[in-house]
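Reopening this one. Same input as before:
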Amino acid sequence: MTVDTSFGSDNHAGVHPRILDAIQEANNGPAVAYGLDACTAAAVEKFREHFGKNVDVYMVFNGTGANVVSLSTLARSFQAVICSEHAHINADECGAPESATGCKLLTVHTANGKITVDDIGRQLGGRLDQHRVQPAVVSITQASELGTVYSAEEVREIATFCHGHGLYLHMDGARLCNAAASMGKGLGEITGHLGVDILSFGGTKNGLLLGEAVVCFHPELSKNTIFIRKQAMQLASKMRFIAAQFTALLSDDLWLKNASHANRMAKLLEEKVKGIPGLKIVQHVQANAVFASFPRPAIDKLLKNYFFYIWDEDKNEVRWMTSFSTTEMEIENFADAIRESCK
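Same output, byte for byte:
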């Protein structure tokens, strides 16, 4: 499907010019394959600047791959992962985490996409019962699938609870950069420093051509991750082209500039449409997503000229995503079209 302007996903945006330049620069003669090259070594050092000098980094092709490798690192097939019902690992990965790990996902209902320690606690019954899966990992998404952001205090509380109950904490950070920009904090400050054990770090939604990364904050946990990555078909032979992108993203605050712009565009869209009769913003706009509900005839009219997703058919709820490349003029035009559709 070809669209001039899409608010369907930040994945619909193109590649940031500096990322393309980095790929071109990496395309300079031969290099040893499978990550044993200078570009990959440089990228790992960039990760360590942001996340801590002792982290292990495993670059992969995509977000589902990052989540599968992360969860496979932490859990065995008779164990379980506790997550929100809205979690990408539950709703949008075609069962890949369960298929690849053998683990069961134990989901909890959330109104805003964020789980709490009480939610986790309710899933801990039956521990040591040989007839039941054993919870081993809690997975949270930052920013959440509903565009909300866990505060630093919320993440720390969850991490403390997890570790006190023998659980690991995984963070799906497909939009971690947007969360960090929203919070005004560094990438390490809102992950490993708060007790996250392993992170799926997103690049594609923030300007990369392709590529995500698994960041392990405790190297003793990831002694087998190189083998897990290979078995999960996530080991790139020409890894330098993924690595070079991350070096560019994590240099000169490009990650922050891209994410901050996307967040600003979402706030601008919220401001432009929140007074439209019949339209209601249904989630706090904290990152680069706007969730709204309005009459279905107006939604259908708008869809004739703009691409976006209907999030909940029963509630006439839609999701509008902005990206590093969204312009103010696109927001103005889209807001005008929304207003016109609601008349």
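So the earlier flakiness isn't reproducible anymore. For the record, Residues 17-249 form a domain with the Aspartate Aminotransferase; domain 2 fold (CATH 3.40.640.10).
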